[in-house]
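queue> pop job 88
queue> type: inverse folding (structure -> sequence)
queue> payload:
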């Protein structure tokens, strides 16, 4: 089973630009409680390096591109996001890393929960222990 689960959002082009639509129930199968964006990212920077216990997310690259690495403790997969019409679903207990940001990358994340530090697993070793116990 693949860790990389993507789906397409509605994109509506017109002569003045592109309207991208993100709605609960249309690709996003959870109530969106929080939205945040990462921008002005340095090309050689990396981010993420954590998992969540309960939080589910959908990542969308609104501009530019970046590469995600997803890991469930057994399998590691990589995917490049480079379209505002593609969402990457990231479930709980999936380790995530973000790499290879383009100069103009703007990454939006739709989250199922409000921010909670206690939901984070920030050590890969702790993550492996958590998913080992869940098996």
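queue> result:
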């Amino acid at each position: 089973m693949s860790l990389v689960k993507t789906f397409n959002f509605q994109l509506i082009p017109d002569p003045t630009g592109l309207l991208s639509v993100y709605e609960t129930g249309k690709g996003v199968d959870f109530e969106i409680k929080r939205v945040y964006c990462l921008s002005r990212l340095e090309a050689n920077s990396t981010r993420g390096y954590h998992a969540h216990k309960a939080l589910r997310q959908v990542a969308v690259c609104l501009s530019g591109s970046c590469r995600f690495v997803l890991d469930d403790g057994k399998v590691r997969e990589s995917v490049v996001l480079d379209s505002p019409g593609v969402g990457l679903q990231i479930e709980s207990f999936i380790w995530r890393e973000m790499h290879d940001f383009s100069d103009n990358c703007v990454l939006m994340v739709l989250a199922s929960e409000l921010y909670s530090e206690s939901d984070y697993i920030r050590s890969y070793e702790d993550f492996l222990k958590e998913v080992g116990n869940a098996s």
